[in-house]
Amino acid sequence: MSQVAVLGGVTLTPGTVVLVVLLVASAFFALTAAVGFYRLPDVYTRSHAASKSETLGALLALAAAAIAFGPSEAVKLGLLALFVLVTGPTAAHAVARAAADSGIEPWVRERPDLRADGSGDEEVPER
């Protein structure tokens, strides 16, 4: 098996490199989900950020675990990944549906070219 040299004479196998890449990508998507949940303005966009990014982050972490633990645990981790893949977006959809049923309006960006008196509704010419 080939090895990849790293700083300081430390050597890593290709499997370890793949494992580290998967874990870093997983942490990136989990952090992206957390930032999106914190920064986005309403329940709809927050649930979107949480469901998409966090699901991908969890799947990457499970793939890293499958590589680390080997084939004996890969089936269990595959079933867990299927569970995460189904329940994450389903829960986000349920939250968004509950918000819509409760009458929560989606956030809409204020357009500076529209005024309260209705002026500014005309088409804006292309540049």
What can you tell me about this protein's structure?
A hairpin with a 5-residue loop joins strand 1 and strand 2. Strands 1-2 form a two-stranded antiparallel ribbon. It has one domain. The chain is elongated. It has 3 helices and 2 strands. The mean pLDDT is 84. It is mainly alpha-helical and 127 residues long. It comes from Salinirubellus salinus. Pfam families: PhaG_MnhG_YufB. Keywords: Membrane, Transmembrane, Transmembrane helix. InterPro entries: PhaG_MnhG_YufB. This is Monovalent cation/H(+) antiporter subunit G.
Properties at a glance:
66% helix; 2 strands; 3 helices; 127 residues; two-stranded antiparallel ribbon; mainly alpha
Q: Count the beta strands.
A: 2
Determine the mean pLDDT.
84
Provide the structure class: mainly alpha
Sheet with most strands: 2 strands, antiparallel
Using the alpha-carbon principal axes, give the shape.
elongated
Strand-residue fraction?
A: under 5%
| Element order: H for helix, E for strand | EEHHH
What is the overall number of helices? 3
- Rounded to the nearest angstrom, the radius of gyration is 22 Å
Which parts are unreliable, with pLDDT below 50 for 5 consecutive residues or more? Answer: none
Helix content: 55-70%
Strand order of the largest sheet: 1-2
Keywords: Membrane, Transmembrane, Transmembrane helix
InterPro entries: PhaG_MnhG_YufB (IPR005133)
GO molecular function: sodium:proton antiporter activity
Pfam family, one: PhaG_MnhG_YufB
